[in-house]
Amino acid sequence: MVKQDSKKILKDLGIRIVEQTKKGKNPEIKFPLRNLSNIVFDKKTKTLKLGDKTGTRSFFNVAHSKKFLQTIEIASIIKKELLDSGKHEHLRGVFYMAKRTIPGTNVNIVDEQTESDKSIEDLEVITGLSREQLHVSANKMGSIVGNIIIEDSGDVIDCSKLGRGGYSIPSITDELEFKKVNAKYILYMEKASTHERLVEDRFWEKNQCILLTSQGQTTRGIRRLLQRLAEEKDLPIYVLTDADSYGWYIYSVIKYGSISLSFASERLTIPGVKFLGITMDDIIKYDLKKHLIKLEDHDLSRLKQISDYEWFKGNKEWQRQFKMMKEFNGKVEIQALSSKGISFISEKYLVEKIRNKEFLD
Question: Catalytic residue at 188?
Answer without folding.
Answer: no
